[in-house]
Amino acid sequence: MVYDEGLAERIRGRLGADPAVTEKRMFGGVAFLYEGNMTVGVTGDDLMVRVGPDHTDAALARPGARAFDMTGRPMRGWVVVDGAAVAEDDALVAWIDEGRAFAASLPPK
Questions:
Q1: Which segments constitute the TfoX N-terminal domain (predicted)?
Q2: Alpha-carbon gap, residue 102 to 95, rounded angstroms
Q3: Is the separation of the CB atoms in 5 and 12 below 8 Å?
Q4: Residue 102: count of CB within 10 angstroms of its CB
Q5: Which end of the chain has fewer CB atoms at under 10 Å, N or C?
Q6: Over the stretch 6-40, which tens digit does the pLDDT of each residue have?
Q7: For residue 55, what are the CA distances in angstroms to 50, 73, 76, 78?
Q8: Three-state secondary structure call for residue 42
Q9: Is residue 1 scored above 70 in pLDDT?
Q10: What is the per-residue pLDDT across 29-78, written as a single tens digit (0 to 9) for each?
Q11: 22, 32 in Cβ contact below 8 A?
């Protein structure tokens, strides 16, 4: 699957200087991990964000967000954000920071 390389590059610009961040191809796109835990990723034109189970409902209430569902069973703790909803840098940065904050709360892998 092809993913939005421009969106991935914008994420790299925000996370790239952090030595704890790595990239990995997954879900037909690219994922960004913080100390081995996924933070955000790009699949198609959309942004995947790991927000954690306790923040799922609030995340789903935000513009452009929907449940992350690749198998017919939505994954609690994950959302997909429509690419158009993160066209502005402020919106993208907010999602990236939320994903990184959740990943940072987990033990390193």
A1: 20-101
A2: 11
A3: no
A4: 23
A5: N
A6: 999 999 999 988 999 999 998 789 999 999 999 99
A7: 9, 18, 9, 9
A8: strand
A9: no
A10: 999 999 999 999 999 999 999 999 999 999 999 999 999 987 888 888 99
A11: yes
| pTM of structure | 0.93
The residue assigned the tokens 């513009």 is 63
What angle is formed at CA 82 by the lines to CA 74 and CA 61, rounded to 5 degrees?
65
DSSP 10: H
Tokens matching residue 17: 């200087």
Is the distance from CB of 42 to CB of 4 less than 8 angstroms? yes
> One-letter amino acid identity for 43?
T
User: What is the rounded distance in angstroms from the CA atom of residue 56 to the CA atom of residue 14?
Assistant: 23
